[in-house]
Amino acid sequence: MVLKTIWSYISFWYFQYTLVTSLYMLEPTERRIFNTILVAVLAMFFYTSCLFLPGHLMMMLHFVRYICGYDNSTHAVPQDS
């Protein structure tokens, strides 16, 4: 019973997805190609987000902390001896 409920829920949202994107007018092969390309693009988006976003967020955080005057990091500056 639970699996039937889950299946009907997923089927409903897939039906909504096909209606909103007008995929219901395509042939099954065309629909598969479109969905494959969409999944590939989303996978690349999430992969690059996980790969590059943390570094960019840290860079922005350091910049904001520097602008606001909260940056307490000391950079190696040569001292005259």
Automatic annotation (TrEMBL):
The chain crosses the membrane at residues 6-26, 33-54. It is a multi-pass membrane protein. The keyword Membrane applies. Pfam families: SPT_ssu-like. Pathway: Lipid metabolism. Keywords: Endoplasmic reticulum, Lipid metabolism, Membrane, Sphingolipid metabolism, Transmembrane, Transmembrane helix. It is found in: Endoplasmic reticulum membrane. One of its GO terms (biological process) is ceramide biosynthetic process. Belongs to the SPTSS family. SPTSSA subfamily. This is Uncharacterized protein. The lineage of its organism: Eukaryota, Metazoa, Spiralia, Lophotrochozoa, Mollusca.
